[in-house]
Design goal:
This protein has 18 helices and 17 strands. A 6-stranded mixed sheet has the order 2-3-1-6-9-8, sandwiched between helices. A 6-stranded mixed sheet has the order 11-10-12-14-13-17, with helices on both faces. The chain has a 3-stranded mixed sheet with strand order 4-5-7. About 30% of the residues lie in helices and about 15% in strands. The chain is α/β, with parallel strands linked by helices.
């Protein structure tokens, strides 16, 4: 948004349209709002890197620091796949690092705490699998300790005395001590709301080595735990896990950093630097949105409406038995309380021939040409079918509402065909990377694995409103988008954090890291929306008529800016939205059109050049 000369004149004199002898209107001045400007809000972000249990001789801080970025500027990720920049997010984080080693007194207390809260048990399947490797340097011996991960995070947050306005990475190493016990971390307090299945209790793949974000801005990473399944660091025989000729880079257990181990001792410091940068900083602390969050902004006085349709495609079951809209609404409302959330659920029973055909084309069960041909990929079939039949499947809502259409298919394993294992996806428009519809899938086979519809809905709507997974994202200084494969395979460890956006299925809400990022994105976004619209208002000859609203908006914007600077992000986002609402109402009073959403500039590129994929069940048999 560029400031026009006419707007500057209007802002200071409001001379346009004055009759001879008329009294000049008082100038309209703002301090926190900057008409016509896209402001970049800069924030100093302390990153505290703490080594707990590591000897100073084990770690080269120079090697660690060489991996770390100096700054981060978030981008809207999905338009990038279309060759578009997307909206300027208006944020820049400048990092200040502090690296410390804990003393023996705190270490003694911490490892005694782990022993005291741990529950003795047998080796996990993946610790046993590590023992069966040909090249492992030792055998894991039982009994091992199963330790509650959120409790450990809480202990560290309480005892490390870290400032609230910053992030902390704690690298833990128990192995070098004489009181070492083999151990894993668990989270077992949030079973699936539909099936009651407890992934944290029942799944061997959910015994982990890292955690954070439950109730702090801290994330710990313990290479002396495990070995584990999630990052496959139990496997020290096979560098290439998927057979594509590239090493799937993972961080082995800490004792494998040895002359005869999987990795040389001198690589430990740089490996931990990679984890700090490409997991903790890029994916958790200061991440980029998948889609533009402001596209989903309701207009002033409007609601967020999640319109769900349950298509019953299996005569032997009812999808309505496996969805809880009230539960999902509560999670979204807790996350973004500055919106009024509404949910509505409609059952279509039976599914109907037309959309049943589209589902079968999408899944590969029916090989026919249809609307997907225009996009070059059958994965587009559900999107383009709904796009062509919006009047049938998407209910009308008030203009100021923002509606999220969610299409749930209760079907069968056979009908899901090639897409069996896909839980859902939040689709874009196949043109410029703007979010459109949410699709989710359920079947008796999924329920047997523990999955209902509700958790998927919370997750996929999270994508729709902007959130990425904690295992994929963007590196600002390198300008690359990456996921957990090949050189970044270790990025799977980002899932070991408190977020429904993880694939671990251990959390059903949006943790501290989700909150910080979303609220910052929306604070800066609403502030710059207000700046752009204010430019148009001040160019209007009647701008003085809405001076009171502009003054209220500027006061709210000033408050929001102070709250952003002091890391009170929820309040900052709330007041920035209220400031924008005042500016929007002022514009409406003058007859100036107010957009309720902004998307990337359109550029038609063949759909098969952009990665379209959904969220599958990872480790379905365990």
């Amino acid at each position: 948004m560029k400031r026009r000369l006419g707007s500057v004149v209007a802002a200071f004199t409001l001379l346009v349209g004055l009759a001879p002898g008329a009294v000049l209107a008082a100038p309209i001045r703002t301090s926190a709002l900057h008409p016509g400007e896209t402001v970049t809000f800069r924030q100093r972000v302390p990153i505290n890197v703490i080594f707990l249990g590591y000897e100073r001789g084990q770690i080269s801080t120079n090697k660690l620091m060489k991996q770390l970025p100096g700054a981060y500027e978030p981008v809207v990720r999905y338009p990038q796949f279309y060759g578009l920049e997307g909206r300027d997010m208006g944020l820049r984080y400048n990092f200040d690092y502090d690296v410390t080693f804990t003393g023996s007194r705190l270490e003694n207390r911490f490892f005694r705490y782990l022993r005291n809260i741990g529950t003795r048990g047998d080796l996990t399947d993946y610790q046993a699998a590590y023992n069966d490797q040909e090249n492992n340097v030792l055998d894991v011996r039982g009994p091992v300790l199963y330790i509650d991960a959120p409790s450990v995070e809480g202990w560290l947050a309480d005892h490390l005395n870290q400032p609230a306005n910053g992030y902390t990475i704690v690298f833990v190493n128990w192995h070098s001590r004489p009181d070492f016990r083999f151990h894993v971390y668990t989270k077992t307090d949030e079973p699936d709301p539909d099936t009651g299945y407890n992934f944290g209790v029942n799944r061997q793949t959910r015994k982990i080595i890292a955690w954070g974000g439950s109730h702090s801005r801290l994330w710990f990473y313990d290479l002396s735990a495990g070995p584990e399944s999630w990052t496959d660091n139990w496997n020290v025989d096979d560098p290439d896990l998927d057979g594509n000729g590239a090493e799937d880079y993972r961080m082995p257990p800490v004792w494998e950093y040895a002359r005869d181990g999987y990795r040389r001792p001198g690589e430990l410091s740089s490996d931990l630097g990679l984890v700090a940068r490409f997991v903790a900083i890029n994916l958790l602390f200061t991440s980029s949105p998948l889609y533009d969050p402001l596209v989903t902004a309701p207009g002033p006085g409007g609601n967020r409406v999640v319109s769900m349709n349950m298509f019953e495609d299996d005569p032997a079951s009812q999808g309505l038995d496996w969805i809880n809209p009230a539960f999902a609404k509560a999670r979204w409302a807790e996350f973004q309380p500055y919106y009024d959330w509404r949910t509505r659920l409609v059952q279509t029973d039976p599914i109907g021939d037309a959309i049943a055909r589209a589902l079968r084309i999408f899944s590969g069960v029916l090989e026919e040409d249809d609307c997907w041909n225009a996009y070059g990929d059958p994965f587009a079939e559900l999107f383009c079918f709904i796009e062509e039949n919006q009047g049938t499947y998407i209910p009308r809502t008030a203009r100021n509402n923002y509606q999220i259409p969610v299409f749930n298919f209760n079907t069968t394993e056979e009908t899901l065909g090639d897409q069996f294992g896909l839980l859902g996806f939040a689709d874009d428009n196949w043109v410029d990377g703007t979010q459109t519809y949410v699709f989710s899938f359920g079947a008796d086979a999924y329920r047997e694995l523990g999955y209902g519809f509700t958790g998927t809905a919370v997750h996929e709507v999270g994508h729709h409103i902007g959130l990425s997974h904690p295992h994929d994202g963007y590196d600002s200084q390198l300008g690359i988008d990456y996921g957990p494969e090949d050189a970044f395979y270790f990025a799977w460890s980002g899932d070991e954090s408190d977020s429904v956006m993880s694939y671990l299925d251990l959390s059903l809400g949006f943790g501290e890291f989700n909150q910080d990022n979303m609220y910052r994105w929306e604070f800066a976004g609403y502030m710059n929306w207000a700046n752009g619209l204010l430019d148009d208002i001040l160019a209007d000859p009647q701008a003085s008529q809405v001076a009171d609203r502009i003054a209220r908006a500027d006061a709210l914007a000033s408050m929001a800016t102070r709250q952003f600077r002091s890391w009170h992000y929820l309040s900052a986002a709330t007041n920035a939205r209220m400031a924008y609402a005042q500016i929007a109402r002022a514009a409406a009073a003058l007859g100036i059109e107010t957009p309720t959403s902004m998307s990337a500039m359109s550029a038609r590129i063949a759909g098969n050049r952009v990665p379209h994929e959904g969220d599958p069940i990872r480790h379905p048999t365990d």
